[in-house]
Amino acid sequence: MAALIYRPEYTGYDFGPEHPFTPARLGMLLDLIHGLGYPTAPIAPPAATREEILSVHDEAFVAMVEALDRGETVPEAEQFGLGTPDNPIFPGMDLAARWLVGGTLHGARLLMAGTDTRVLQLGGGLHHAQKNRAAGFCMYNDLAVAIRAFVDHGWRVAYLDIDLHHGDGVQNLFYDNDRVLTISLHETGHYLYPGTGHIQELGTGSARGLSVNIPFEPFTEAESYLEAFEDVVPRALEWFSPHVLVVQAGADAHFADPLGDLALTTQAFQQLYRRILALAGAHAHGRTLFTLGGGYEAQVVARVWTILYLTLMELPIPEDLPQAWLDRWRHLLGPEVGSTLHDPVPAFPELAGREERKRRNRDVVSRLMDSLFRYWL
C-alpha cells in the first residue's frame, strides 16, 4: 500500500478556463476512484514555506511571483516566465503553487522518516520550472524541492520522468550534482516543447553521465517505448544504486493527448507502473515518490491516473467505468469516450512507418548507451 497525499487547495492552481492545465483533472480523478468503490484517505500536507521554495529557486524570481500575486504591475514579469500564455498571472498563485510543492515535499519526508515506502502525490509534477523563471505551466518546481531535501538528507536520488515533454527544469537544477540521476523519456525536442532532452545532454563535472535522455520519434508506440525503457532504465538504476526513486508520472504520452505525438495506451502505462515499482524494489530499497504531471485529454488522464493509483495501492483494476461517473463528467469527456477503464484492443489502426520508428529509436538508445558507458564503467 502507498500513502496518498492530496488537499482541496490543489485546485487553486488554476490558470483559467481556457488553459489546458486545468484542476478539473483532479476532480475527475478522485471522483472516478470513489466511483469504482475505493474510498481514499489522503494525507493533507502543509504548504511549502518561502525558505523551502528558495532551496532551489532564486530570491528575485520568488519575489517577482509574490509581487504579481499582490497585484503589482511589473513590466519585466515576462523575463521571469510570468504573464505569458503558458503561465498567466492569477490571484493567489504563490500560495497555490506552494501547496503543490508542500505536498511533494511532505511525501519526501514520509519516505525519509521511514513512515512509508511508496507515496503518491495527487498533484505536482511541475518539472519545467527553472531556477529563475516559470515555464511550461510550471511555477515552482516541486520535484526539485523534494529532491533537494533528499540530497540534504544524504541520499542519492534517481529521478524518472515519463511525461511526454522533457523534464528540463529538474535536469537543469541538478545538472552538476553527482547525488542525482535524472532519466527522462519523452518525445524528441526536435519537434516538441521544450526543445531539449537530446542524448548529448549528459551532465557536467562530477555529474557527467548522470543526465540520461531517451528522445522518441513522433508516433512511437508502446512496444518500441517499452523496449527502450528496458534497455536503459534498469542499467542506470543498477549502476547508480539510489536510496529513492522520484517519478514524474505525466499521462500525456497517451496516443489521444492533444499536445503531443507519442502513442502509448492505458495498458502500456500499467506495464510501466508495475515495472517501475519492481525496479524500485530491486534498486532503491522500494522507496518511490510519484507525482502527477502533464496530461490534457480529460477522458485519458482520469483513467491513466486511476490505473496508477490502483497499481500503487495493489487494488484490482476493474474493466468498466461507472455509468454515474460518465454521466457527471460527460461535458468534459466528449462523445468519443468509451465505457472501459482500459483502452480497447486494438486502440487505434496500425500506424505507418512503425518499423522505421523502431529502428530510429534503437539507434538513439545505442548511441546514448555508448556515450554513457564511458562514465559508468
pLDDT average, as an integer?
96
Instruction: Supply the CATH architecture.
Output: 3-Layer(aba) Sandwich
Helix percentage range:
25-40%
Number of strands: 7
Number of domains: 1
Quickly count the helices: 12
Largest sheet: 7 strands, parallel
| Straight-line N-to-C gap | 36 Å
| General form | globular
Can you offer a commentary on this structure?
By secondary structure, this protein is of the alpha/beta class. It has one domain (3-376): Arginase, Chain A (3-Layer(aba) Sandwich). The chain is built from 12 helices and 7 strands. It has helices at 24-35, 50-53, 59-69, 93-113, 142-152, 168-173, 222-240, 266-283, 298-312, 323-328, 330-333, 354-376, and strands at 3-5, 118-121, 157-161, 180-187, 211-216, 244-248, 288-291. It has a 7-stranded parallel beta sheet with strand order 1-2-7-6-3-4-5, with helices on both faces. Helix 6 links the parallel strand 3 (157-161) and strand 4 (180-187). Helix 1 (24-35) crosses helix 9, helix 7 runs parallel beside helix 12 (354-376) and helix 8 (266-283) runs parallel beside helix 9. The longest helix has 23 residues, at 354-376. The mean pLDDT is 96.
Topology summary:
Layout: E1 3-5, H1 24-35, H2 50-53, H3 59-69, H4 93-113, E2 118-121, H5 142-152, E3 157-161, H6 168-173, E4 180-187, E5 211-216, H7 222-240, E6 244-248, H8 266-283, E7 288-291, H9 298-312, H10 323-328, H11 330-333, H12 354-376
Parallel strand pairs: 1-2, 2-7, 3-4, 3-6, 4-5, 6-7
Keywords for this entry:
single chain, 377 residues, alpha/beta, Arginase, Chain A, seven-stranded parallel beta sheet, 7 strands
